[in-house]
Amino acid sequence: MQYLLTFLLIFLVFGGVGKKARQANKAYNHGQYKKAIQLYKKAIEHHKDNPKLYYNLGNALARSGSPKKAIRYYRKYKQMTRNTDQKGKADYDIGNIYSKKKKWNKAIKYYKNAMRRNASDADAKHNYELALRHKKHQQKKNNKKGKNKQKKKNKNQKKKGKNNKNSKKHQNNKKKQNQQNGKNGNQQKKKRKQRSRSHKMTKAEARKILQALKKDEQNVLKQLKKKKTKSTNSSHGKDW
């Protein structure tokens, strides 16, 4: 089943409405909607109180691809006419515009208005039922899309949490490693300091060593002097 999106026939205006209105009707019937729009606007300048011109202009605008402007003139027409059936026709046409835009809530609203004004409007009833079906289908689609989106979001959050956990674990391991390296470094530094201290000589120790060396040197000199003296005495005692 398809929408009955054809707009209702324009009002045929003759006589007192003027030549521009008749030319506009002719252009509209030949599919020359832009030309018809200009002619209807000129006709309205001379016949501002004729609601049929506003309705026809709304149809021409809708056909030419200007739905917002068309709705404005349909509403203007509804304000001007007192005929309930004619108000219903405008509601039906507005409903068709919103159906094309897939704005189901607004389409349903105007189809309802059309049926209230004219209970025998089969086209309005047909389109109303289709709009309801499309609305339900769209809701299911949106719900499914929302669930999939939430599912994907939860999956990403779970993955992100896992990555954060791994990252945190890696950081902790790295921190422990750094701490261990620092500890080892401190121990090595301490050992080097201790070795340096063990090799470092105090002033007292250095003085003691110097005194020992001086004493040894004096002993050596004494021994050399003693040998020299002995050698001299021995040479004088020979009998030549």
Give a topology summary.
Layout: H1 19-29, H2 33-46, H3 51-64, H4 67-80, H5 84-100, H6 104-117, H7 122-199, H8 203-236
Helix pairs in contact: 1-2, 2-3, 3-4, 4-5, 5-6, 6-7
Features:
240 residues, mainly alpha, Serine Threonine Protein Phosphatase 5, Tetratricopeptide repeat, 8 helices, 82% helix
What count of helical segments does DSSP give? 8
Q: How large is the radius of gyration?
A: 56 Å
Main CATH class of the domain at 15-139: Mainly Alpha
Number of DSSP strand runs: 0
Averaged pLDDT: 83
Class by helix and strand content?
A: mainly alpha
Gross CATH architecture of the domain at 15-139: Alpha Horseshoe
Largest sheet: none
Which regions are unreliable across 5 or more consecutive residues at pLDDT < 50?
235-240
How would you describe the shape? Answer: rod-shaped
**Which range best describes the helical content: under 10%, 10-25%, 25-40%, 40-55%, 55-70% or over 70%?**
over 70%
Estimate the strand proportion: under 5%
**Could you name the CATH homologous superfamily of the domain at 15-139?**
Tetratricopeptide repeat domain
Per CATH, what is the topology of the domain at 15-139?
Answer: Serine Threonine Protein Phosphatase 5, Tetratricopeptide repeat
Q: Compute the separation of the termini in Å.
A: 162 Å
Secondary-structure element string: HHHHHHHH
Question: Can you give me a brief rundown of this structure?
Answer:
The protein is mostly helical.
